[in-house]
Amino acid sequence: MKEREGQEEIFSQILRAGRRTYFFDVRGTKAGDYYLTITESKKFTHDDGTFHYQKHKIYLYKEDFTEFMEQLKQATDFIINEKGEEVISERHQKDFKKEENDSDGDSIASSDFTEINFDDI
């Protein structure tokens, strides 16, 4: 058990997700009860190679667990129902735009096309 900022840490789990890391920490109060902190830590790299972490923290208390979990489930179900489970990200979109297929199914790089601005014609 660790002691942080006066609250006793009882249980911890870590979820690594690319540049983000999520920490789920159960802590003890001075009164002997438990609460949950969820921390998102995101790594940012500077041009010179140095980096820093930006952290966001949520404190979740037992009296809010049921409603929080219901709301989280509704929100995540909505996203999956509306957009499916495929991840669509900026990186994915860049890769998709880089390579397309012609009518024969052969790969064509987007750089093979000439960009035309109709205002110039």
Q: How much strand content do the residues show?
A: 35-45%
What pattern of helices and strands is seen along the backbone? EEEEEHHEE
The stretches of 5 or more residues where confidence is low (pLDDT under 50) are: none
Structural class: alpha+beta
Largest sheet geometry: 5 strands, antiparallel
| Strand arrangement across the biggest beta sheet | 1-2-3-4-5
Overall number of strands: 7
**Mean of the pLDDT scores?**
80
Reading off the top of the CATH hierarchy, the class of the domain at 2-66 is best stated as Alpha Beta
Distance between the termini: 71 Å
What is the level-2 CATH architecture name of the domain at 2-66?
Roll
Description:
With 121 residues, this protein is of the alpha+beta class. The protein has a domain at 2-66: Roll (Nuclear Transport Factor 2, Chain: A), CATH 3.10.450. 23% of the residues lie in helices and 43% in strands. The chain is built from two helices and seven strands; from the N terminus they run E-E-E-E-E-H-H-E-E. It has helices spanning 65-83, 90-98, and strands spanning 2-4, 7-17, 20-28, 34-45, 51-61, 99-101, 107-109. A five-stranded antiparallel β-sheet has the order 1-2-3-4-5, with no helix packed on it. A two-stranded antiparallel ribbon has the order 6-7. Strand 2 (7-17) and strand 3 (20-28) form a beta hairpin.
Task: Sum this structure up briefly.
By secondary structure, this protein is an alpha+beta fold.
